[in-house]
């Protein structure tokens, strides 16, 4: 903290000796009928100075900018007007706004780090603002992203959703950078963004900008697949008291479980004191019942015997999934429920009877023991809560410079899915930021301080079972009773389960709490043979960055900016998630980077404008060689037609977890790619093997010698790289028809994926024949060449009388050329080289997981009218997402996830007297349950009623 306060003091001193030269600007804003308009945003173009009109339409603001200048005046549902302010009108500026159903004149900053019209951006960029938030049926601004073209949201909890773009969908997407007021939203140690768990209050969100695709040239190596910038409201511009109360229900139609209610309360207060100082305070509290992961169907996973359908005539090539699930544990030896834990066939819940077992009917049989549901293990009936708070102080210095100091807080419980399902009962995060921002520069310093303790649901369920009765004893009792398949399985399970800890009982709760509250590095109190399942990540991040725009110094001949950043990670997991150094201390990670960008807008003729842009950045992580990420782009404007194109390369440093993670002794889990992590996991003395190779060995397709030759070898772990090019087109025809289209092609090398490896329990190859192994998710650079091609189009058409119809469609395909550890192209089982084939093809997936996990097709359709009357507005949205091939984690599986649809709707009513809006809305209002990922909670209808009061007491 001392660094932040020292920096802020430097900010204040740097401007304290300069003189003020204030200009008081005043005016009025009316509509086409000359009626005063309240709540209109008025901002000096190119600055952060602004205000909002009063009930009589009048506004006033002070600036030390010299005249002439330009005011940008905007309001939901009206065309933005840019008004020149000169020496003869600055005290009586008159602005008239015209209604406009289609808004295309948004200003964005994420595309090039400087404000520019969205149509002039040389890369694909999306922006959601007040208009989109108000009209969206989504329950929060963050949830509104699900309507943006190309965005795939993976819902893990009611408050935790992961944003995915352009393939390789992940529950914990560490290829996508989320910035909140310029601060990295990710967990410092775990390495992924927590979505809205620790975001800013809904009432304080001004806009969300989204860049699909590589953005490393300006934002560093973590923006490999894209960038999301969430900006909060400035207290100088947005003042007064705002409040929102929302009540709703979900889990409708769940029989004995649902429906369940939830509540969401938010309050914001901002005030300007004098001419220089302003502050704001935010708080939001959500509580309710989470969507429940209650898929109890038999798990589809390549760990199953004969999982793929094999065509012997083609040398054993896979043609599809051959495993037929049996969802009845009373007739299925190997029943393994998707959201039932402790019964996992590859995570300590299965027993293989010896081939010489006394009961000949069970010789060589694999049997899973009885597990517990997710609700059983959690014991909290799915209750979820989330608190978000923010306090910030803002001070205006001479030269239109603003200094600010802010505190951002997030707290809540949630479930995340990695290789396993993990529960965080009380996550806390503090972020402190000091910033100095002017028209042509910014300096920023912030820190993230996190307290994240959680426990593994699956491992805890297995531990509860083993505490009651060992797997061997359970199997022995099963085998003594078993007679035949018709009656034997159910009777055998019932006999072996006698005396089992019942969910909710004192015995069950005591054992669960003992494991869940004991770190995985410590033995359970009173036991010397079992360790806990709890882990922690109390890591921290310190980040310093700045940028300067030299354009004015160059007399606007060329737009030139340069910037740089320093960051320091302090890992703090106590060895529970990330291994410790040999001396027992924690790791630290240091990174630095710098960039420069040059652009020039050339007006060739009255209808033709060309703007080329070139940017290059260098970044260095202390554990890897530095890398350069260039970007070249251009936009060509021909009348209303805007053509854009870009090429860029990018790379990504592995997250701390991907670098150093080690599972608890004897248990499965993630393993980092570093040699230190491999050594801690015992991989040098007891090698692990890719799951597909183990299957080939047990099926007799390869020899023991061949299997040993393919053991995981911790080679040089390096950065992940991508090269991508993109073209796009954007236009607005007759102010009624808007089109935005794009096409992209990307190539990945040194792709980092957590592949499933099997490590024999006793270090013997023979262990695989008795199911005696643990499953590790090892992060490593594969040698594959991976290609992603996609295109998308979004359009909006004004039907008249305020009605608009809009929609978007996105198509993307991932292909791969498979290579072995020596770089040779891998053949499928028919002997045909696997070159640029779809990663969802079974003959490709048969040779190993590639984790593309993205639908090939998805579209949204929306009919909206924000002004059915002066007070009434409504929106109806239909969303469809294609089926997708999922390869996910240790206890998830491999499956074609079905396509799904959702019908969303909202009706809103304005009450001007109380400056309020009443909104009745819902997502998936037809309540067709679907899952966005295998093993995730199934999403049903979410229905809500909200009332929002905005800028009272202004």
UniProtKB/TrEMBL annotation:
InterPro entries: Beta-barrel_TonB (IPR000531), Beta-barrel_TonB_sf (IPR036942), CarboxyPept-like_regulatory (IPR008969), Plug_dom (IPR012910), Plug_dom_sf (IPR037066), TonB-dep_rcpt-like (IPR039426). This is TonB-dependent receptor. Residues 408-925 form the TonB-dependent receptor-like beta-barrel domain. Residues 118-226 form the TonB-dependent receptor plug domain. Keywords: Cell outer membrane, Membrane, Receptor, Signal, TonB box, Transmembrane, Transmembrane beta strand, Transport. GO terms for cellular component: cell outer membrane. Gene3D superfamilies: Carboxypeptidase-like, regulatory domain, TonB-dependent receptor, beta-barrel domain, TonB-dependent receptor, plug domain. It is a multi-pass membrane protein.
